[in-house]
Amino acid sequence: MVIGDDTVELYRLNGTSAGTWAAPGIHWPRQGSVQTVGSTVYYLKPSTGAVAEVSATGTSDLSFTATAGLSAFTVSPDEGSIAWSTSTYTDQVVSQLWLAAIDGSGIHVALESDPADEIAAWFALEPVAFGTDGSLVYAWQITGIGGYILFGGHSSLYRYDPVSATTTPWAPLLSDSTGPCWNTVREDLAFAVGHCIGTDGTLAVRERNLQSGIDVAFPAFPGQGQAGAGAYSPSGQRLAYAIARGDPDAEAGQIIVRRSPDSPLAPLASITNGYFRILYWLDEDRLLVGGMEDGVEKVFLVGTDGVVTPLAEGPLAGWIHLP
User: What is the pLDDT of residues 48-101, one digit of tens each?
Assistant: First the structure.
């Protein structure tokens, strides 16, 4: 699925068109702005200030999410819950994290910034993902940064338990390492991966055991200037991420894959004059990949056998099950 002009463009995995859905106000898919779940696309709709949903039956707003300063959201894998964040900037930054059932029931502010805390004003609350146990992973996220940054990520990771209304720091915000480095959390909330600075002060792709807090740093590959787009396969046993040279004048990228927790990391696919931006596992053997090549956003199907098949042009925003 790629984003068009106020549309969602659908493609089958053989590259043929599967139709177009109207999605008024949809934009280039930045982190927390577009998500696909099941057969539905959810996105931030600036004209109404709410999260909208689009499917084969049409488009509608989740009007209960229409809050001032809506900045990011995430929907649970079973489409039963939604979390979203708001940030308003006046004399004092106010950031809130909201929770509700997908029908709007039970809506409430789960967390809110506190001017008296030790978190700097340029960090805002942002939902990351729901776990299969119903808990929510969220971040205190740095804002207002720029530069040649190829991959999205989160500055920290915390778990919020909606039953007890308690939080647990999993990758807490560090004063000397605040970049948006954590890419993804495994759906069972056992591990996270990111291109982060460790307690030893070194930058590396790292996998963190979220229960023990122990990191394993991965070795760098030739041509690795930046890294990101980490993604676990549906079983959680396979891991893939992207690396890039980090040179805007001579960019190149690779996909790195680990076939099991005990297997070595190895390059799977490469691209010249561009980079792989985002990865989605379709199953244990296929990745749907969005990237930039020759200045054009493109979508590829990449098998674990290393075969790369171009599918479409445009910014990849996920994949859905067509009815």
Answer: 999 999 999 999 999 999 988 899 999 999 999 999 999 887 766 789 999 999
Torsion sign across C-alpha atoms 69, 72, 74, 75: positive
Under 8 Å between Cβ of 155 and 61:
no
pLDDT for position 175: 62
pLDDT digits (tens, 9 = 90+) for 180-191: 899 999 999 999
User: CA 93 to CA 214: how far, in whole Å?
Assistant: 33
Q: Round to whole Å and give the CA distance between 11 and 5.
A: 16
Report, as an integer, the average pLDDT of 109-132.
Answer: 83
Is the distance from CB of 53 to CB of 38 less than 8 angstroms? no
Could you tell me if 322 and 22 are in contact, meaning their C-beta atoms sit under 8 angstroms apart? Answer: no
Q: Look over the chain and give the mean of its residue pLDDT values, rounded to a whole number.
A: 93
* Token couple for 33: 């702005």
pLDDT in tens, 228-287: 999 999 999 999 999 999 999 999 999 999 999 999 999 999 999 999 999 999 999 999
Q: In which region does residue 120 sit, left (phi positive, over 0), alpha (psi from -120 to 50) or beta (all else)?
A: beta
Measure the CA–CA gap between 158 and 154, rounded to whole angstroms: 11
Please give, one letter per residue, the 3-state secondary structure of the chain: CEECCCEEEEECCCCCEEEEEECCCCCCCCCCCEEEECCEEEEEECCCCEEEEEECCEEEEEHHHCCCCEEEEEECCCCCEEEEEEEEECCCEEEEEEEEECCCCCCEEEEECCCCCCCCCCEEEEEEEECCCCCEEEEEEECCCCCCCCCCCECCEEEEECCCCEEEEEECCECCECCCCEEEECCCCCEEEEEEECCCCCEEEEEEECCCCCEEECCCCCCCCEEEEEEECCCCCCEEEEEECCCCCCCEEEEEEECCCCCCCEEEEEEECEEEEEEEECCCCEEEEEEEECCEEEEEEEECCCCEEEEEECCECCCCCCC
